[in-house]
What we know:
By secondary structure, the chain is mainly β. It has 2 helices and 21 strands. The strands form 3 sheets. The protein has an 8-stranded antiparallel barrel.
Amino acid sequence: xxxxxxxxxxxxxxxxxxxxxxxxxxxxxxxxxxxxxxxxxxxxxxxxxxxxxxxxxxxxxxxxxxxxxxxxxxxxxxxxxxxxxxxxxxxxxxxxxxxxxxxxxxxxxxxxxxxxxxxxxxxxxxxxxxxxxxxxxxxxxxxxxxxxxxxxxxxxxxxxxxxxxxxxxxxxxxxxxxxxxxxxxxxxxxxxxxxxxxxxxxxxxxxxxxxxxxxxxxxxxxxxxxxxxxxxxxxxxxxxxxxxxxxxxxxxxxxxxxxxxxxxxxxxxxxxxxxxxxxxxxxxxxxxxxxxxxxxxxxxxxxxxxxxxxxxxxxxxxxxxxx
Length: 323
């Protein structure tokens, strides 16, 4: 409406001149981007770090800021996505550094690499001074060409035992009176079945101060944690996709009460309904979140419950996969 009102106050010649100027500006910005050193690095990358012979997932996004500066976002093997203020390009290689988050050590986290064919490879040096090699591939878009057709619901938790699940490490999970229970911090729990697109219904409760999460395809964490209702929403609090997507409100109930998430994931697009309120509506998850099992975003993955941050209980875990 504002645009139509503005047009009504301008002469046709002036409207045409403004339109041409805007088009020229867009064109020039695009053309300049083609000449930016390291422009092939622009995009999202799924990275695997070789941590003493064990693969560890990581993720990088590089964007053009203005005419010639590359900036980005980085997810290390732990923690949430962190901003990269500048990706430095020099002699065909790139590098950047970011302050430590949860890592041990007093230095910065430093990433260096180079383009190798369609991929990238390099070295990451952690704040404690230890260095590891890594390789990266372009992240898939995961765009779906049609609306999903849903299969029949599947009860992932049978209410009796841990059949269909396995613990990562020494198991502390038990079933008590039909409730899947992690009585203390310990191992995470992973479904044996893997899924691509799905609708997920989970019912859970936690004591005061506890923290958990449920990972979609084992790669994207939806936060379950004790968060006051009057807390300002954040992507690291209740209902957020950890480090990436912020809920519209904190729709949490009080500790000790049963709560529910209804989550729909199609490609990268996620909708999260927390206790009957839609807090994230069909938003894109850019990449893997901290704690992911791997960085193979195009593959099916399990449902993965965080059990290493405090006690939590689940009484229902129902998934409806796409056919």
